[in-house]
Amino acid sequence: MNGSRLAALMIALGLAGCGSSGNFGDLQAYMDEVRARPKGAIEPVPKFQPYESFTYSAAALRNPFQPPVKIDMVQRQKGSKEVKPDEARVKQFLEGFNIEVFEMVGTLAKEDSVYALVSGAGGVHRVKVGDYLGRNHGRILAIDESKVDVIEIVPDGEGGWLERPRSLSLKERS
């Protein structure tokens, strides 16, 4: 019975400590302020500002981080009316791609024929002298172990055509 008396005494002391003898003036003032606020007043939703899109208009201009290109109109190469692509010729598969996507990756020799292996356009392709490559009517002139020589026929901008030599160098293993 001693244990139950001790428990009852502890409960009585605990309840006595919860009395209103403490100072709760600041809590009472806050509760009075909250109760004094008007009921049902909801703050209005902030006004939505619509997004204004921006169109960058300088995309077609020269890159400001590159030096300007000077074109000397007198020194510029003029095209001729004699040089022009054969429009009646049937286009080959590799003419549907820019020549910049191709790189030479090797050569093959079979009897007296030499072929170049060019990577690009979704795979590795075997080409020989006389084949066409690239969108500018590029015809392969020569193949050696280190490069493929191509001559392209491009418009000069004044109604004529120019022959422009290009080379695909052998890509070394990296």
TrEMBL record:
InterPro entries: PilP. Keywords: Lipoprotein. PROSITE patterns: PROKAR_LIPOPROTEIN (PS51257). Pfam families: PilP. This is Type 4a pilus biogenesis lipoprotein PilP. It comes from Pseudomonas benzenivorans. The lineage of its organism: Bacteria, Pseudomonadati, Pseudomonadota, Gammaproteobacteria, Pseudomonadales.
